[in-house]
Specification:
Largest interface: A-B, 120 and 120 residues
Structural class of chain A: mainly alpha
Strand order of the largest sheet of chain A: 1-2-3
Radius of gyration of chain A: 28 Å
Distance between the termini of chain A: 69 Å
Largest sheet of chain A: 3 strands, mixed
Oligomer: homodimer
Strand content of chain A: 5-15%
Number of helices of chain A: 22
Order of helices and strands of chain A: HHHHHHHHHHHEHEEHEHEEHHHHHHHH
Helix content of chain A: 55-70%
C-alpha cells in the first residue's frame, strides 16, 4: 500500500512503455491519488500516464493537479485536448492556471468557455495577483439570518453540485453584508424550523484585497473548512476553501524552504527527476553564491600583508565565517517565517533590529568567551582577544543584518526567502572578515 | 482587521495588566482565533489571558490550542483548573497532550476522566508514538453498503455531537472491513432511499501502524477532509481528520524548517518572545557548530606550513568552504524533504548516492571552470588548477555526503533535519579544506 512503491511501479511501467501495467495501476485510483502520482513524474511520462486515463477520470485528475503541472500538461497535450478539462475547473483554479500559461494559449482557452464560466473567471481575474480575491471561489451558497435551517439545507441540496464549499454557509443581511457563518454540521443538527441567525457563529473572514499567503496560513492554522471573503464594504464576494488555502500555503512553503536551502523547488519527485532538472534547480543559486564569494577573495587580498605577518590568523577564518553565516541565517529564517505568517511587517524594522542586536550580543558574548579561551590556550593572549572581540561583533552584525534583510526584501517586493540563508551567509562572510582584520590590526598593531 | 494589530493590542493590554481592555479583545473572538492569539503570547501573559475567558469559551479555546501549549498552560494553571477542559478533549488530542506532560500530572488527569473517555483514550494510547493510530479519532460514524442515504443521514444527526468528523463517512462490510467512503455532500445530494454502497468512492486510507507524518502529508496534500484508518485485517479502527493532519504536518515542518536554519522552533510569536527565549532557541545550535568549527582550526593547523609558503591559498578558503557548505545543504534539504513526504527511504541509499555524485560532478565542473579562470587570471596557472580541481572534488563530496546524511539519520532514528544545513556545512568545511590542501600540495609540490 506504500505510496512510494506504487510510484516506483508506475514510473517503471511508463519508462518501459508497458501501458497495460501502467493502466492497471492508474485506473483503480481515486482522482486525488492519481493526480498526486502523476505530479511526481517527469513531464514526458506524466503526459503518457495522463492519456491512459478514462475520459471522466482524466477530467477529475486534471482538476486535482497543481496549476503549474496543468500548464506543463497543456503544453504537452495541446490546447484542444484539454478544453473540456479547462471548462470543468473552478473559476479560481482556472485563474491560477491562466497565470501560468502564455498569453496566446490563455486567450484561446478563455474564448472556448461558456459565457457564464467566462464571467465567473473574470470576477476572479479582476483581483490583483497574490490577493485572496484571486484565489477565492466566486460561487457559494449563502443564507439570510431569518432563513430556517430546513430552507438552507434545501438550498445546499439544490446547488450543492455547482459550488465548491457546502460545509460552511455564510449568513448575510439584505445588502449582502456578512453577519456570521453556520456550519453544515450545525444545520443538520439544528431544529429544521429554527432560523439560522441565532445558531450562526462570528465569522473568521478575509478581505478580497488581503495578501493570499498569510490569509491562507490563517485559514489552515485555524483548520476552518472555508473562509468568507468580503469587499471593502464587508459585502460577501466569495469563499476561500480550505483546499485552496492548503495549496497556497504548501506551494509558498516549498518555495521558501527550497530557497532557504539555496535551491529552486523541484517540480518532480526527487528520485524520478533527471540529473539535469536537479542540477538546474541548484546551479543558479550556487553560481550567485560563488560570484559573491569571489568578493571575499578580494576582501582578503586587501589584508594579504596582515596575513603574511600572522599566518595563524588564517586558521580562524572558517570558524568566524561559520559563526557569522549561521547567526545571520538563524535570524533571517526566523524573520522570514514571521513575515510569512504575518507576525511582523516592514514597519517593525526598529523593533526587529532592537531584538536582534540584543540577541546577537548575548550569543556573541557566550561564544566569544569560549573563542577567547580556545585561541588563548592554543596561541597567545592577543590572538585570544582578537578572536573573542571578533565573535561578539560578528554575531551582533550578522543577527541584525539577517533580521533586517527579509524586511528589506519585502519592502522592495522581492521574495524574502531569496535573501535568507544563501545571500546572508555570503554577505556576512565578507563583512565578518573585514571586521576580523580590522580588529586584528588594531589589537596586534600590524 | 489585521491579526498582527489585534495581537499587538492584546499583548500591550496584558503587559499593562489592563484586564478590561484584554477581555474586550478576547471575548468576542471565535475560539480558534482566541487560541491562535494566545499561542503567540509569552507563557505568563498567555495564562492571564486564558483566565479572562468565560467558562464555555475557555473549554473551546483549550481544545484548539497545540498540545505543547496546553501542557505549558496546565503547568501555569494547575491540574484541577483544567480537569474540565481535559475531559472535553478528543481522545487523540488527549493522547497528544499526555505525551507532553510529566507522568504524575498525566496520571492524575486520566484518573479524573469518566470510564468511557478513559477507555477511548486507552485505544489511542495503545498505538506507538508517532504512528497514525496515536493521532486518529477512535470515535466515528460508519455505514453499511445497504444502508440508505436517509438512514446514514439520521445517524449523522443523532451522533454528530459526539464524533469529530461527519463530512466523510466510511462504508464497511459486516466484519467492519473498509469498502469505501461516502461524503456528506453526496449523502445530501443522493436519493434518500438509495443504498450508499453504489455512491461510495474508493477510499484513501491509512494503516494504524503507518508513520503519522507522511500519512498526514498525504491527507493534506490530497485535501481530503478525513481518512479512514484500518488495522492489519483492513478493519476500520478510526479516522484521521484533516484538522489533526494539518496539525501534524505543520508542527513537523516548523521543526524541520527551524533546524535547517540551525535553530529550535520558537513557541511564541517572534515579536513577543523574550530575548532569552530567542537566544535559547539559537545558541545551542551555534555552540554545536562552533565546537565543530574548532575542528577546522585544527585541520588548518596541520597545513600551517603549506599556508606560510603560499599565503595566497588562504584567500580562497571562504570561497571553497562556501561552495562546499552550500552544495551539501542543497542536497541535504532536498533529500530531507523527499524523506518527509515519503518519496525516498533509507533503502534508496545507492540510488540517492548515484544521483548526487552525478549532480555534484556536473555542478562542480561548471563552477570549477569559472574558479579556474578567476584564480588563473588573478594569480597563476597552478593556483587556477588547484582551485578548479578542488571545486570539482568538493562539490561531488559535499553533494554525496549531504544527500546520504539524512538517510543515515533516519536509519539511526535521529530527526533528519538535525543533520541538514548546520551539521553538513560544518562537516563539508573540514573535509573540503583537507581536500584543498592535499590537492595544493600535490599540484604545487610544496
Amino acid at each position: 500500500m506504500s505510496a512510494a512503491t506504487t510510484l516506483r511501479s508506475l514510473d517503471d511501467a511508463l519508462r518501459e512503455r508497458d501501458l497495460t501495467a501502467a493502466s492497471s495501476i492508474l485506473l483503480p485510483l481515486a482522482p486525488q491519488e492519481a493526480a498526486a502520482l502523476l505530479e511526481q513524474l517527469a513531464p514526458r511520462r506524466r503526459s503518457i500516464g495522463f492519456r491512459l486515463l478514462a475520459k471522466e477520470q482524466a477530467l477529475a485528475v486534471f482538476d486535482d493537479l497543481d496549476a503549474d503541472t496543468q500548464a506543463v500538461l497543456i503544453h504537452e497535450l495541446g490546447t484542444t485536448e484539454v478544453a473540456a478539462a479547462f471548462d470543468i475547473l473552478e473559476p479560481e483554479d482556472r485563474a491560477a492556471l491562466l497565470d501560468e500559461l502564455p498569453a496566446s494559449v490563455a486567450k484561446q482557452l478563455i474564448r472556448d468557455l461558456s459565457p457564464e464560466e467566462r464571467e465567473l473567471t473574470a470576477v476572479v481575474l479582476g483581483f490583483p495577483r497574490g490577493s485572496v480575491g484571486r484565489r477565492m471561489s466566486p460561487e457559494f451558497i449563502h443564507a439570510f439570518a431569518d432563513d430556517t435551517a430546513a430552507t438552507v439545507l434545501d438550498r445546499v441540496r439544490a446547488r450543492g453540485h455547482e459550488v465548491q464549499s457546502i460545509y460552511i454557509v455564510p449568513v448575510v443581511d439584505r445588502s449582502r453584508r456578512l453577519l456570521g457563518v453556520v456550519s453544515l454540521r450545525d444545520l443538520l443538527l439544528a431544529d429544521p424550523d429554527a432560523p439560522v441567525g441565532p445558531i450562526a457563529k462570528p465569522p473568521i473572514y478575509a478581505h478580497a484585497d488581503d495578501e493570499a499567503e498569510p490569509t491562507a496560513e490563517r485559514c489552515v492554522d485555524r483548520g476552518i473548512s472555508a473562509m468568507p471573503v468580503v469587499d471593502a464594504e464587508k459585502r460577501l464576494v466569495g469563499i476561500l476553501t480550505l483546499d485552496d488555502a492548503i495549496e497556497i500555503v504548501d506551494s509558498a512553503r516549498d518555495v521558501d524552504e527550497a530557497r532557504a536551502g539555496a535551491r529552486e523547488p523541484l517540480r518532480e519527485s526527487y528520485l524520478y527527476a533527471s540529473i539535469f532538472a536537479i542540477t538546474r534547480s541548484r546551479v543558479v543559486w550556487l553560481f550567485v553564491l560563488a560570484v559573491s564569494a569571489i568578493l571575499t577573495v578580494n576582501v582578503l587580498e586587501i589584508f594579504e600583508g596582515t596575513l603574511e605577518q600572522k599566518v595563524a590568523l588564517a586558521l580562524f577564518i572558517p570558524l568566524l565565517t561559520g559563526i557569522g553565516g549561521n547567526t545571520g541565517s538563524q535570524a533571517a529564517t526566523t524573520v522570514t517565517r514571521a513575515l510569512a505568517v504575518g507576525e511582523v511587517a516592514p514597519r517593525d524594522a526598529f523593533r526587529v533590529a532592537g531584538k536582534e542586536i540584543r540577541v546577537g550580543l548575548t550569543m556573541g558574548a557566550a561564544l566569544g568567551v569560549v573563542g577567547f579561551g580556545v585561541a588563548w590556550l592554543a596561541y597567545e593572549f592577543e590572538i585570544g582577544a582578537v578572536i573573542g572581540l571578533t565573535i561578539v561583533s560578528v554575531c551582533t552584525m550578522a543577527a541584525t543584518v539577517g533580521g533586517l534583510m527579509p524586511l528589506v526584501a519585502k519592502t522592495i517586493r522581492v521574495d524574502p526567502a531569496v535573501f535568507s540563508t544563501p545571500f546572508i551567509s555570503t554577505f556576512c562572510d565578507a563583512t565578518g572578515l573585514i571586521i576580523y582584520f580590522m580588529i586584528a590590526k588594531a589589537v596586534l598593531g600590524i
